[in-house]
Design goal:
By secondary structure, this protein is mainly beta. It is 6% helix and 39% strand. The chain has helices spanning 2-6, 299-311, and strands at residues 17-25, 28-34, 48-53, 62-66, 72-74, 79-84, 89-97, 108-114, 142-143, 150-154, 158-162, 167-168, 177-182, 185-186, 189-190, 194-201, 204-205, 209-210, 215-216, 226-231, 239-247, 252-256, 262-263, 270-279. It has a five-stranded antiparallel beta sheet with strand order 9-11-10-13-19, with no helix packed on it. Strands 16, 17, 18, 20 and 23 form a five-stranded antiparallel beta sheet that branches. Residues 293-304 have a biased composition (Basic residues). It comes from Gluconobacter morbifer G707.
Length: 312
């Protein structure tokens, strides 16, 4: 009898569809809110979003204020006020949906309400007397103009432009990129043949942007953490993307196929990238692996590998 009475109380654990993403924000005050035009929550209160301090972020560095005490902003018409005392700092965004929901996860937007609330950390500034180090080809950036193939908003520099095949941003500068647009003007490849995404957090990409559309933010001190670029249509059969990038922590990746998202394991902000569009008949240099990240290695590591190869 008791077993029959308890049966209806069992199996009440429901596995929701959930996703977790981490935003990296600079020092300042930000408003995180729902993008307009999204369906509201159903009878269960889902979908919904919770904003909280990311694990590993020291207490007191990030403060999240919402109408609910637990950081819940619901599925529509909600907002969170995020104060970052010292950046970059992580903010955890967790989305919840019904198990069989056919809709995409709720989309959020971020607006900066105020600048840094405390003195910037000394590490944010470039070393005053750092010796010059060899880097990849010198950036050929110019002030952004309507006819630029690649445009970007760069920390401390504003809007700049470069051509396909030239560095956007300066490797080693520690100035992050906040957003970009790409509109090639090449024989056989135009803006209509390309699309791209910005990496916003771990496993979190922006929606695809069409060629010529701006992707990211501008003047909000919100760095992007990487990018993904791909060709579409008939151009996919005639050309390939070759992408190289550097990040503010010194990580350098590439060249890789742009169809893979290029981001540092450390989630450091994107500092510079080199986009090349090559004929599919062209081959990659022998010392690189097309489609795989190529990281800097020390001479000691290289010598060890050479010795192991000789021994085998």
């Amino acid at each position: 009898m008791s077993n029959a009475a308890e049966a209806p109380k069992q199996n009440r654990v429901i596995d929701l569809k959930a996703g977790a993403h981490m935003m990296v924000l600079d020092a300042g005050i930000f408003c995180v809110f729902h993008a307009p035009g999204q369906p509201g929550p159903g009878p269960s209160g889902l979908p919904g979003v919770r904003i909280s301090r990311a694990p590993g972020t020291p207490p007191g560095v990030v403060t999240v204020s919402t109408f609910e005490e637990d950081g819940w902003i619901g599925g529509a018409n909600g907002a969170a006020l995020v104060r970052v005392m010292r950046g970059p700092a992580g903010v955890l965004v967790t989305t919840y949906q019904e198990p069989n929901s056919p809709h995409p996860a709720p989309q959020l937007q971020v607006a900066q309400l105020a600048g840094p609330t405390s003195t910037a950390a000394p590490a944010a500034a470039a070393p005053p007397s750092a010796p010059a180090t060899p880097v990849a080809p010198q950036s050929a950036e110019q002030p952004a103009s309507a006819g630029s193939e690649i445009s970007a908003h760069v920390q401390r520099r504003g809007d700049v432009a470069a051509a396909v095949g030239q560095w956007m941003g300066v490797p080693g500068s520690q100035n992050w990129i906040e957003g970009f647009s790409i509109a090639p003007e090449l024989a056989g490849v135009t803006a209509a043949d390309i699309e791209y995404q910005a990496v916003l957090g771990k496993g979190w990409l922006s929606p695809w942007a069409e060629g010529g559309q701006y992707c990211g933010s501008r003047g909000m001190a919100l760095p992007i953490l990487g990018l993904r670029v791909r060709l579409k249509g008939e151009t996919e059969t005639t050309h390939k993307i070759r992408l190289t990038a550097t990040f503010t922590d010194g990580t350098r990746l590439g060249p890789v196929e742009g169809t893979d998202a290029l981001e540092a394991d450390s989630l450091a902000p994107l500092e510079a990238f080199l986009l090349e569009i090559v004929s599919i008949d062209d081959t990659m240099p022998a010392e690189t692996d097309f489609g795989k990240p190529v990281r800097k290695t020390s001479s000691r590591t290289a010598a060890k590998r050479k010795t192991e190869t000789a021994a085998s």
